[in-house]
TrEMBL record, chains A, B:
Keywords: Metal-binding, Zinc. Belongs to the beta-class carbonic anhydrase family. It comes from Sedimenticola thiotaurini. Binds 1 zinc ion per subunit. This is Carbonic anhydrase. Its cofactor is Zn(2+).
Length: 193, 193
């Protein structure tokens, strides 16, 4: 067992020992909202947004992007579990600003087992699940945070699966200060219709 | 401004006021690992796994599933930001066990703006980004947690983008107790090659 596994399980034992009545929390988020944000290690959405266990859905991926999978999660969050407001929160100093699809293709070309990389990018020749067969991977890199927040709010707003009556707010988390800063044009684009 | 937005910003102000030296944390995760887990409101991965800001990447979606987007995030986590061990953590009483693709299709048929739902499921006729055009949505529902953890560890292990030398561990978080319980066959399937 690696040291990391030992540390995680030890921390988990301490957490479980103080679990209290959290075992009785219901499945639907008590405060009826969801946050889509980046996987970045420096971000703790529960801390930066004041969430207790049971409060809100938290969706995270590289960049906090409105990928199809993030939209899948948001639609489930709304339709089955009752969230009624959504936040899209990107952040300063994001790793997604440090590379491009081309760089990623170069990095992967040395380690891929069956996929191919050509001038059009990366092609997965054997991905399962019916979702990437033969398709170019878009790594969803970012060149401007305010722009990426706006684009992602718009992409969610324009999804045919997303009801018009749910407001979507756009924010940037500042890794230097811990502060959330609104992207007003994104929140405006995400207002309920 | 909604009450939820006011509450989030108020909690954020308190967090930022006590931010201390966290503004100096580097981008790469200090403890060099990543967790893929569910968006469920009852789960706080930082608490249940003992993460401080800066320690580890956290990727979350509905179910904690190894979607293409989760794999995109994990590959970035490894290639660009240096994580060397990954956890897949599903949980008891998951919302993804409560419905099927068919139920979701029925729920969506009343609210879709441009997409169509037929006997084959949901078809997005105008999704942007080149990733879902005309494609059936797989909601990645779950019927058995140990099985879904195993399947997701295997899907990551078998991705042509994932290097063989990274171990992938499979766990289930128990919402009644707060405890992490290993799925040994998943961890075995995810062992480094």
């Amino acid at each position: 067992m690696s040291n990391i596994v030992k540390e995680v399980l030890s921390a988990n034992s301490s957490y479980a020992a103080e679990f209290g009545d959290k075992g009785n929390l219901p499945m639907p988020p008590g405060r009826q909202f969801a946050i889509l944000t980046c996987m970045d290690a420096r971000l703790d959405p529960a801390k930066y947004a004041g969430l207790a266990e049971g409060d809100a859905h938290v969706i995270r991926n590289a960049g906090g992007r409105a990928s199809d999978d993030a939209i899948r999660s948001l639609v489930i969050s709304y339709k089955l579990l009752g969230t009624r407001e959504w936040f899209v929160i990107h952040h300063t100093d994001c790793g997604m600003e440090t590379f491009t699809n081309e760089i990623m293709g170069d990095l992967l070309s040395g380690s891929l087992k069956t996929a191919t990389v050509d001038a059009d990018g990366w092609h997965d020749s054997n991905a399962g699940g019916g979702t990437t067969d033969g398709k170019y991977i878009n790594w969803l890199t970012i060149s401007d945070q305010a722009q990426s927040v706006l684009e992602d709010v718009q992409r969610i707003r324009n999804s045919p699966m997303v009801p018009g009556d749910i407001p979507i707010y756009g924010y940037i988390y500042d890794c230097k200060t811990g502060k959330l800063v609104e992207v007003p044009e994104a929140t405006a684009a995400g207002r309920a219709r």
